[in-house]
Amino acid sequence: MAATIISIRSEHERALEEGVARLAEGLPIALPTETVYGLAADATNPKAVTAIYETKGRPQFNPLICHMADLAMAKDHATFDPISEKLARAFWPGPLTLVLPLRDISPIHPLATAGLDSVGVRVPKGFAGELIAAFGKPLAAPSANTSGKISPTSAEHVAEDLGDKLSLILDGGLAPVGVESTIIRVEGERVRLLRPGGIAAEEIEALLGHPVERQEGPAPTIEAPGMLASHYAPGAFVRLNAVDAQAGEALIRFAGQPVAGSEKAHAVFDLSPEGDLAEAAANLFGLLKQADATGVDKIAVGPVPDHGLGEAINDRLMRAAAPRDT
Fold first, then answer.
1. NCBIfam families from the xrefs (predicted)?
2. Per the annotation, does 58 bind a ligand?
């Protein structure tokens, strides 16, 4: 049976009531956040968390971010150091996830943390935060897509991928940020960037007054979501930093940059004709889906600047282009 889709804009109260009701039943639902659409379920209910993994086909060693209504709720479940609290107060609600020690008294189930003694927490903007407050418990909510595939930025994307596996999709329109949250872990004075995302690392560095540490090479262990080498992948193979287009490829470029041979491409898309990295981030997953839907075997992607939100865009593209298990 296809999922029921409820518009938050036209049926706000019904969306809230139905969302709380399905969550109370232990069912996962799809809901909009400012980053991407999430597959949300009660983080304290092992059957509900298991349903997330089963619906996505996600490996259970890959932890889930737990979404909170506000900082006070987050403090009920995680221990904050001064730097992490400073970041939370500056950027929440918003696309920042903090990996923190899990409190012994927290009822978040070990399935949601993949058995780790830490938990990734964030406070989302808008309807998602309102729904969590109404439900009264944290929601584990990875992106609402089949594991490893392109993240959804609209209710339509969710319906196309998981519509026959869900009972409810809450439609809030296009996700304005378009890439997942930035993930930060603080260890003493060290501030580590585990995943670039919707808040540029430069913003965090400006607040703290010193650089954040980047991961060099493949992560030795999975500490947070989005750290798998191959992730966010379309069906077609992805070729990065393309300076030319080959016959039959779909081409995705940035800022109208000329690409040799683009006239031979099967289709041409532009992340942001004006060269706006925020617009490019918001369009990234949608254009990857559009390019993939043309039926090509390869997608060529032109260079994207690596500063600001470009760091998150290039991270997602690198993982989309990574070798896949066969």
1. L-threonylcarbamoyladenylate synthase
2. yes
Flag whether pLDDT at 117 surpasses 70: yes
**In this structure, are 296 and 152 located in the same domain?**
no
**Rounded to 5 degrees, what are φ and ψ at 87?**
-65, -45
Strands 4-7 and 168-171, by their bridges, are parallel
Query: Is 35 annotated in some ligand binding site?
Result: yes
14 annotated as belonging to a binding site for a ligand: no
**Residue 196 and residue 242 in one domain:** no
The confidence band for 24, taking pLDDT boundaries of 50, 70 and 90, is very high
pLDDT given for residue 319 in this prediction = 87
Judgement on whether residues 59 and 180 belong to the same structural domain of the protein: yes
272 labeled part of a ligand binding site: no
Q: What percent of the chain has pLDDT over 90?
A: 87
18 domain residue, yes or no: yes
53 annotated as a binding-site residue: no
Same domain, 155 and 273: no
Phi, psi of 101 (to 5 degrees): -60, 135
**pLDDT tops 50 at residue 326:** no
The yes-or-no verdict on residue 293 having pLDDT over 90 is yes
Tell me the pTM: 0.90
* C-alpha to C-alpha distance for 266 and 264, rounded to whole angstroms: 7
Confirm whether residue 239 is marked as ligand binding.
no
CATH number at residue 68: 3.90.870.10
* Residue 326 belongs to a domain: no
Provide mean pLDDT across the span 43-61. 91
Residue 181 annotated as lining a ligand binding site:
yes
Domain count, the chain: 2
| Residue 195 labeled ligand binder | yes
pLDDT tens digits for range 63-75: 999 999 999 999 9
262 is known to lie in a ligand binding site: no
**141 marked as part of a ligand binding site:** yes
- How far apart are the C-alpha atoms of 227 and 213, rounded to whole Å? 15
Whether 201 and 76 have beta carbons less than 8 Å apart is answered as: no
Quote the domain boundaries for residue 250: 237-321
- Per-residue pLDDT at 151: 95
Q: How far apart are CA 255 and CA 271, in angstroms?
A: 7
